[in-house]
Amino acid sequence: MLIRTLVKDPDCRNFLDSQPEIENMVCTLLQTFAALATRLEDKDTAKPSMGEVNAERKELVATIVDLLESLSDLLVYRVIWPNFELGNWNKTIRGVISCLRCGREVISQEDVVIRLTCQIQKLKEKHREDMDELERSHSAIQATLTGHVSSMRSRYFDAERQIAIHQRKLTDCQSELEAMKEDLEGHQQKLLTCEKRRDEVEEQLANADEELRAEKHRSSQLEEDLDKRNQQVESMEEELEEKSRRINELERKLALLARSHKEQSLVIEKQTEKLRASKHVQSVIQQLCGSVVIESPMHPPAVRRR
What we know:
α3 (20-46) packs antiparallel against α4 (50-70). This protein has a domain at 2-107. The chain is 86% helix and 0% strand. It is built from seven helices and no strands. Residues 212-239 are annotated as: Disordered.
């Protein structure tokens, strides 16, 4: 009931509205107190043993102390119990537990309001000091941010200039790349043409190799034929030499025969003249002598007639 009264106070309510985390902790504390009161009523009804009661009390005290320590900004337990010390919690906690059991208030509401008003005033002063410190920090941060913004702005402008330079370079590089692509396409086309030409040349070389082999075969055959013909020529030359020798011999013989024929012709002419003369003489003698026949050396012996 005491904590609920504090929560319903307008100044405390405004403070809790401005601090949602503390408000959540106060709500949690109220829920925990309600749950603890319910559990204590259940324990009283069941009449547990003394050891169980002590263990339960220690657990409850530890839970309450943790929750009260978590409310360091509001300091509710220091408002209610200014001389509270964690080392001497037995008597105070008994009073709190008996208060929760019977619903009595530990101190009067006027004291609570006075102490809470003082605490809220201190909190307001602290809040004002915090706001002044926050404003000074805000001014320093704003000045720092202004410097950073100006620095960032100059860096941004420098970056924009660098970006423009790089964009121009990129445009130039792209144009160079396009030109290089066109050159590459031209070189590729030339390469394809060269490859086709190479294939044609290789085919021509293959054909030339075949023709060369055929020519070599023909030349070998021609060499063989030439050797044969050379042999034939040599044999024919030998025959010609033999025939020329025979011709020379025949020419010598012919010359000899011609000379002998000439000599014989001369002899025959002489003998013919002699014969004519002898015939004339014989005819004269025959006329004179009758049937006497003179033997000629060129004619066989004739029958002598008288």
